[in-house]
Amino acid sequence: MTATDATTRPTPETVRMTLREAHKQSLRAALDHDERVFLMGEDIGAYGGCFAVTMGLLDEYGPERIRDTPLSEIAIVGTAIGAAMNGMRPIAEIMTCNFSLLAMDQIINNAATLLHMSGGQFNVPVVIRTTAGAGRQLAAQHSHSFEPYFAHVPGIRVVSLATHADARGVLAPALEDPDPVILFEYPRLMTMEAEVPVDPDIVDLSSAAIRRPGSDVTVVTYGATQHTVLDAAEALAADGIDAEVIDLRSLRPLDDATVFASVARTHRAVVVEEAWRTVGLGAEVAARIAEEAFYDLDAPVARIGCAEVPLPYAKHLEDAAIPQVESIVAEVRRVMHRG
Amino acid sequence: MPSLGSGMDVGRILEWYVQPGDEVERGQIVALVETDKANIDVEIFTDGVIAELLVEAGVKVPVGTPLARLADLGTEVATPAAKEGQPAVEPAAEVPAPTSLVTSPIVRRLAERTGVDLHAVHGTGRGGVITRHDVEEAAAAQRPTPPAPAAPAGDGHRASPYARRLAAERGLDLSEVAGSGPGGAVLAEDVEAAATTGVRPSPAAGPPPARTAPGEVAAPPAAAATTAPADTGPATDRGQAMRQAIARAMERSNREIPHYHLGETIDIESTLGWLAEVNADRPPAERLLSAVLFIKATALALRRSSDLNGYWVDGAFHPGDGIHVGVAINLRRGGLLAPAIRNADERSLDELMAALKDLVERTRAGGLRGSELTDPTITVSNLGDSGVDTIQGVITPPQVAFVGVGRITPRPWAVDGMLAVRRTVYLGLSADHRASDGHRGARVLTAIADHLRRPETL
Question: How far is B240 from chain A (nearest CA, A)?
């Protein structure tokens, strides 16, 4: 079930690219692979996308397949759902998940339910790309993390893409899924560079990934925060604490088997997320550990999340609100009873 | 797991009296079950052969859980020893064997507090059960021993779930392990350290005590480990648990049952005179108490009014299969039980007296049968000893009636147009208006009074 990133695969041919480029390549591959695929969203064509992911695609594929839309998230998603039900493979872009709330009705009441309401007659093979996360001083209306809202809903699949391998390996299987898939991307990682194989691997959509094996404590996370957690794990290693870092990747369904297996080895768990802590994915993971791995636990499960405030604009306040290396290190040390 | 009362949701098997391969007959007592209210013997309702015990001693399971598998008589049943292809001999002394302790939560908590290892205590209670007294004696005997160098694990053994599991797997007694975690909690590494430095293992890993049956010896350690936290978890005080059970039953009663209450004060001067005569020639042990008169009078009165004798279940009245009078017996530690005297109308006063004594004794000492708690078709409660004049009772669901008896006391009373002082008693009837009406209730109450006035009919 667990698919660790095989970036160390003995492939002679590698290439260095940004995460933005990785996303663009997978879109291009999808457009090349299947003529039913088209993109629609705000400013994705002439402007090249708010985060420049679709830059140049309008010239390559033309306005039929790279469609700029009016500023109406409900229209974008509603149209995409209709197109998907009629045999197309639309990729709808919602600029940030902060605006996705306007499309929630289409996503939950239509995309997620139509297969059920039609007695199995209509699948909705739509893919919705959106972004989440803070870190760029965009304040409370452009910085939030709403992955948990979608992970709550039966009928849709939710995946977070925060590595090059996932950015390149998830879109294809997402398009093959006959049901709605929501992909979360992370603006603050777009310029992150990595050496990657020329040919991308397909990623198992439903699996979590162990980003760093370790034996002392399991740190479960997802999205952009995993890079902060990995930095924290290095700092902890210098201190003699060997942390295992799990990227949930699939936020619905949750690959809890990977989490339980890890907790059975480490006996301690810390859940880190950038979304608000209350009623979140961290709460869900902690509850499942308590339900299924209770007798493996040598310490209570700890959670770190966003401070329960609208995200502030000021840099020092924004930093204080979301998980940082220092706060993660401190919490892991506390769980390890090395306070 | 049978339901041994309307408020019972779970029960714990304290002891199995049978093993796979044993032949059993209907009515035989096969297990001792701990409920919130009491330890109760459970009978079997069919003849057969025990094929398999599905729930181990010490384990708490919800009502309705199958406890054992029963095969037809004459079926070849593999005994635990035969199943594993081993001769049925006692295991060698060095073989670690999980043992099952038969104790109450109160005793276990006392043992924890006083640092007494229950495995080392000889039980003097009924069936070898370890009593409070046994633990206190063991604690006194231990006192000269200097305290262990390791501080005991915080308040009532704080320990992580994993540490508990490890300790159970290694046969370590958590109370012997020093905790290094928050608030003195025992962590896994403390257990590991204790295991390597050689802390005295708990006698669970030593030779099995004589009471250990072969089936228990064969119990897989994994199963023992998973049950351990249940046993060592926050021990519910039996008194509190009983309070909860009574609370549930009474809440249900007041929520569901539309009660009506009738009452009558009657002159029982002559009846008590009759009773004194009966008792005059008897040694104290054989004397009748007035309590049995009320039980018998109630039972006889119900013969003609079956709609107050039975159960209200699923929106309909179901008459009892006999007149089984539940007798409310208060417990010294608080709370009460109302076990049944079956077919009370068919028994003589002497038989009733013997049955009542037996019930009181077993209610207070433990050892009631499950059926005795579920059988009653009506309840009689006598609060006269407590000095109250009247009682308006709450019906125990699913029964439909309740008879309360007040204090027997001299009162000014009109007799044949003259004022006299007579001993009187108040009889209160509470009945379920769904099952009967006031008119019928009044007839029952009058019939009880009539029988009491004419003791020769009892």
Answer: 27
